[in-house]
Amino acid sequence: IFEPRRIIVTGGCGFIGSNFVHHVVREHPGVRVTVLDKLTYAGNPENIAGLPSDRVELVVGDICDAALVDRLVSETDAVVHYAAESHNDNSIADPSPFLETNVRGTYTLIEACRKYGVRYHHVSTDEVYGDLALDDPARFTEETPYRPSSPYSSTKAASDMLVRAWARTFGLKATISNCSNNYGPYQHVEKFIPRQVTNLIDGARPRLYGDGRNVRDWIHTEDHSSAVWAILTRGRVGETYLVGADGERDNITVLREILRAFGRPEDDFDWVRDRPGHDRRYAIDATKLRRELGWEPAHTDFAAGLAETIRWYRDNEPWWRPAKEATEARYRAQGQ
Ligand code: NAD
Ligand code: TDX
Fold it and tell me: In this structure, are residues 282 and 216 in contact, taking their beta carbons and an 8 Å threshold?
């Protein structure tokens, strides 16, 4: 068992990173967290506001800043790397920041971690495996070949490859997790569920891509946090673990569940232009994580988790309102 006292969480002001910071503060009282976050359009210091200042420190900076990263890594026990450009549609409009942050940023972090012998956990996505057909009985496992489709997922795949090479060649003490689609509080309004929920709060119609039958394997972000903690502290160095909670659903089913929650007819939405290269289906087999580390998801009732998430957006309009109009303007420009 590895028991870090000080950890760096990169991207700790984003959606999943901030949920992880809350999880660590709540569940692991002996741990101090340094959040390293550039505060891009997707980062919001409000996400970690109110946490005890003797437990959580925010450093505003770029993971590509080698001097800053070197100094911070020299004073920590572990790095948990969440920072990324994370949105597929943005990566199609302009791939450049994805190359910088996802590839060069990861390179900068692992160079510092190998220099100081610091434990490194790499947070990645199931999208590195490409997609599955709707009628394929297969799910992704740790052995599935890499076959990314988008600029986003190809830069995440590249970053995973760097970590594997650094582990083998330099003995970097690394683990990797590849998780499916997260939902929960603090998710940016550009993403599927928050976009539709906030549209409905605004009295606007939801927007569905393509034929709406694309499948995503939904997991509550709190379950992703408990999985990352289990892998960081009890996972085998050099290994990859897939994280998922058997939550496959197609987009139109999720959208109709949201419409029902707002008391709106089930066809009260607009079909819009499909995403180029749109992955058909993701599905995770998390057997290794469950068997080896005894991890189990706690939030397996999707309807309850979705209702709670909708309530969070209703209760926290001041949090999402400032980003809403600019996000919709970007989508309008793309016909979406
Ligand atoms: P997000 O876009 O909500 O947050 C990203 C955070 O990283 C923001 O706070 C941003 O300010 C910060 N950041 C971006 N570039 C930076 C840089 N150069 N230096 C420092 N900080 C920077 O993303 P998210 O949805 O929370 O995803 C977090 C991680 O989890 C990503 O690595 C993503 O690939 C992975 N992941 C996401 C999902 C999902 O469903 N959203 C699923 C699996 C894996
Ligand atoms: O308005 C929309 N309408 C729509 O039909 C939006 C924003 C999305 N969609 C569809 C596209 C996808 O099939 O919904 C699905 C989910 O879309 P996103 O929220 O953009 O997520 P996805 O592309 O699946 O990627 C997410 O999960 C894996 C995260 O953004 C990634 O960071 C993570 O790696």
Answer: yes
